[in-house]
Design brief:
The complex is a heterodimer of chains A (123) and B (328). By secondary structure, chain A is mainly α. Helices cover 72% and strands 0% of the residues of chain A. In chain A, helix 3 crosses helix 4. With 328 residues, chain B is of the alpha+beta class. Chain B folds into two domains: 101 residues, 2-Layer Sandwich (Phosphorylase Kinase, domain 1); 209 residues, Alpha-Beta Complex (Aminoglycoside 3'-phosphotransferase, Chain: A, domain 2), CATH 3.90.1200.10. In chain B, a hairpin with a 5-residue loop joins strand 7 and strand 8. In chain B, helix 3 packs parallel to helix 7, helix 6 crosses helix 8 and helix 8 packs antiparallel against helix 10. Classes of the chains: A mainly alpha (123), B alpha+beta (328).
Chain lengths: 123, 328
């Protein structure tokens, strides 16, 4: 994912501790300015936690499939997302378009993991 | 906490003691802190107001002023905006640079993941939305205080802007984005007919409507700049803002949206420019989402809105941009 999972989880934990936990102490004080903000923070943090949990469960299999698909084109660089993307990107910039379907496939798999409807063209 | 600043500032403005009630910070809009509140004078005067201010550590005073000037430019015009009241580029009035607007009562905003953001009023709101965009592009940029720009600079300047932002915030290989940037650089569009006021973030979610088919206010002018009007139109029509509907902004068929914009702007869609700016819109989006993620990774923010941006829109635009590259 764009945000590495450890960084994401650390940030969620910080948000819950810094914004939401203090707001819980303001329960019964509806005039507290930041209670409203903390409520929104808690709701979005819950959504992020759901994504993070799914990512932890599904990312290894998705990554293995992407590596296997890219191995014939980039060899050992296929193992590991950053190395694979760097190798595929170098091919693209050199004019080798065989890398593009692999990147499309990777992007499709990563988006599908979110459980959202697919993008619909506006045409 | 800006309450004491607000009470002190408004007491001086109104010439009577003012108390602040109902102060609430909005969730979202991470670049700015946004509060609504009621100001109540000892005479009984009562006004519902909104404060947008920089986070205390921010040093982007010039952007604050640009946003305020743009709102001032359209206040009272056929482009609905909140009524601007006062801007302070320093920290004296509000604790950090910011400005006051009158609250737009009853305003609703569409959520990104809401499949029915505008319900049965989608076409009615969409017609007003794209007409307002055309009116913005018909306005004189000097009236909004945006700097002058040579026609030939419109596309290269924006590409350079986002290329620099990507260079500053990249934290891992982004082959799709880099390939798209290379295509944009090699296929620059023709200069626009004229330089327009470009809102910079004109899209579903950045305006208020009344829930009954009336557009109330265009918001979030903080990215306003001079440029090619196709830039705003392409961003507004990007699939990310379509609520998974295939409609422009989740409101109108694309041809209808373009027709409304052309009629109000006096401009004609250039197919070559349109193709380029639609790719650009996805590139711009992707850089914004990467920058949001970088804020979180570096520990400068723990706002879940930035985590959301660095995950869901990031993956959306990575996918659509990769698919677009297959068609170029």
């Amino acid at each position: 994912m764009s945000l590495p999972l450890p960084a994401l989880l650390h940030a969620v934990a910080t948000a819950l501790g810094a914004e939401v936990a203090p707001a819980l102490q303001l329960l019964g004080q509806p005039e507290a300015p930041d209670a409203n903000y903390a409520g929104g923070t808690a709701a979005t943090a819950a959504l992020i936690l759901g994504i993070a949990a799914a990512e932890a469960a599904n990312a290894p299999a998705r990554e293995a499939a992407a590596a296997a698909a890219a191995q014939p084109l980039v060899g050992d660089a296929a193992a590991g997302r950053d190395a694979r993307c760097a190798a595929l990107g170098a091919l693209l910039l050199a004019g080798d378009r065989r890398a593009l379907p692999l990147l499309v496939g990777q992007a499709q798999a990563e988006y599908a993991a979110l459980g959202l409807p697919p993008p619909v063209p506006v045409a | 906490m800006p309450a004491e600043h607000l009470a002190r500032f408004l007491s001086a403005q109104w010439g009577e003691a003012v108390t602040i009630a109902g102060l609430k910070r909005f969730h979202g809009g991470s670049a700015r802190q946004t509060y609504r509140f009621d100001a109540i004078g000892t005479s009984g005067r009562r006004e519902a107001l909104v404060l947008r201010r920089d986070p205390p550590s921010s040093l982007i005073e010039t952007e604050r002023l640009a946003e305020y000037r743009a709102i001032q430019c359209f206040a009272g015009s056929a482009v609905p905006v909140p009524e601007p009241l006062f801007c302070d580029q320093g920290p004296e009035s509000f604790g950090s640079p910011g400005f006051l607007m009158r609250e737009v009562a009853g305003g609703l905003a569409g959520g990104l993941l809401d499949p029915e953001a505008y319900g049965t009023h989608a076409a009615t709101v969409g017609s007003q939305f794209f007409t307002a965009l055309g009116r913005i592009h018909a306005a004189d940029p000097a009236a909004a205080g945006v700097p002058a720009m040579a026609l030939a600079d419109a596309a290269p300047a924006r590409l350079a802007h986002w290329r620099d932002a990507f260079a500053a915030d990249q934290f891992r290989p982004e082959p799709v984005l880099e390939d798209a940037m290379a295509w944009l650089a090699a296929n620059l569009p023709p200069p626009p007919e004229r330089i327009s006021i470009v809102h910079g973030d004109y899209r579903s979610g950045n305006f208020l409507h009344d829930g009954n088919g009336r557009l109330l206010a265009i918001l979030d002018w903080e990215m306003v700049h001079p440029g090619d009007a196709h830039e705003d139109l392409a961003w507004a029509c990007d699939p990310l803002w379509s609520h998974f509907s295939g409609l422009a902004g989740g409101m109108l068929p694309l041809a209808d949206a373009i027709a409304r914009w052309e009629a109000a702007s006096g401009l004609t869609l250039n197919p070559q420019s349109w193709r380029w700016w639609r790719v650009f819109a996805q590139v711009q989006g992707l850089v914004i989402w990467i920058s949001a993620a970088r804020e979180v990774i570096d520990g400068r923010s723990h706002d879940p809105v930035l985590m959301f941006a660095g995950t869901i829109p990031y993956r959306f635009h990575t996918l659509t941009l990769a698919q677009t590259l297959e068609t170029l």
